[in-house]
Amino acid sequence: MGDLLLDQGAQVHRIPAAGHRTAYHEAGDGRPVVLLHGSGPGVTAWSNWSGVLPALAEGHRVLAPDIAGFGGTVFQEGAEYGIKLWTRWLFEFLDALDIPSAVLVGNSFGGGLALAAALRDPSRVDGLVLLGTPAGTFTMTEGLRAGWHYEPDPDEMRRVLRLFPYDKDLVTDEMVRVRYEASAVPGAQEAYRKLIPEPGPGDTPVKGVPEDRLRTIGKPTLIVHGREDRVIPVELGWRLARSIPDSELHVFGRCGHWVQLERPAAFIALVRDFVGRLP
Length: 279
Known about the structure:
This protein is of the alpha/beta class. It contains twelve helices and eleven strands. The chain has helices at residues 45-49, 53-56, 83-96, 109-120, 142-149, 154-161, 173-183, 188-193, 211-214, 235-243, 259-262, 264-276; strands at 4-7, 10-17, 20-27, 31-36, 60-65, 102-107, 125-131, 137-139, 205-207, 221-226, 247-252. It is globular. 47% of the residues are buried.
């Protein structure tokens, strides 16, 4: 399973996948559920999922990896980062752990990766849970623009993070510290900038999975979105729900981009119910 160490107070495993020594957290037994984190400066699997991972691991084998180029899965100079590499990385990560298929739970960028995996090889995906996930083409938002231009600085990190939740008090000094330190790792911001185009002076288009391709997804899909999401607008959640045939949508009022952090109990209940209904 790789070596073990302590990171941010949590046990971390490491295993090779797609040429990256992949860092991941694991807990529980049962049906595999893979938590795919979002993007943004200093993001890691632990910063996205630590609040819900223990509860989701009750009855499931839950894995939360740092995606290639992020966090402890260190950015590599010369690697061609993009959806093809990230999808290959995800499948090799599953292969390394002898997991034929899993439920993919993706936050934002992680949701886009989950969609790409379901399109590339549906046999590897049991179901999809998508949080604040882009779909089709939309105009770059303030949250995406601020993240792209970010340069490592604690005050700037606080300003960027406060764009994500509805309740700004969710952004604590400890969150700022941890995310800032992760963002200052060489290559971290370069990896993030591979995700979206450089913001132009006017409206910059951002492209998610096209709607015609979403209509071909045959996997059960749970979509959750914050009504006040300033990073990925809630209209994109509706777009996903209209396009994916076997889907359901839950919208949370007074909630921003971090449903799993802003509404953890409700999110856990929804995911448990959804996974329990999968064939």
